[in-house]
Inverse folding.
């Protein structure tokens, strides 16, 4: 009992602030993953550039042809 009482005060203080940062980090990570800034940013720019290049190539081919 004395151990639990001694651990409760410090543990509660440590647990209260700790769960908040982790939860915030989890929410941020979830939001980041949901938005997909890191994964979508990498494939997005190249994909858009490729599409633009393809469109330009098609236009050039069409104009030349």
């Amino acid at each position: 009992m004395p151990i639990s009482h001694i651990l409760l005060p410090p543990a509660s203080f440590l647990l209260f602030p700790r769960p908040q940062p982790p939860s915030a980090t989890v929410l941020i990570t979830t939001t980041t993953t949901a938005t997909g800034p890191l994964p979508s940013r990498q494939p997005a720019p190249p994909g858009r550039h490729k599409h633009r290049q393809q469109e330009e190539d098609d236009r050039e081919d069409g104009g030349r042809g």
About this structure: The chain has four helices and no strands. The helical segments are 2-15, 20-35, 37-41, 44-64. Residues 44-64 form the longest helix (21 residues). The chain has a mean pLDDT of 54.
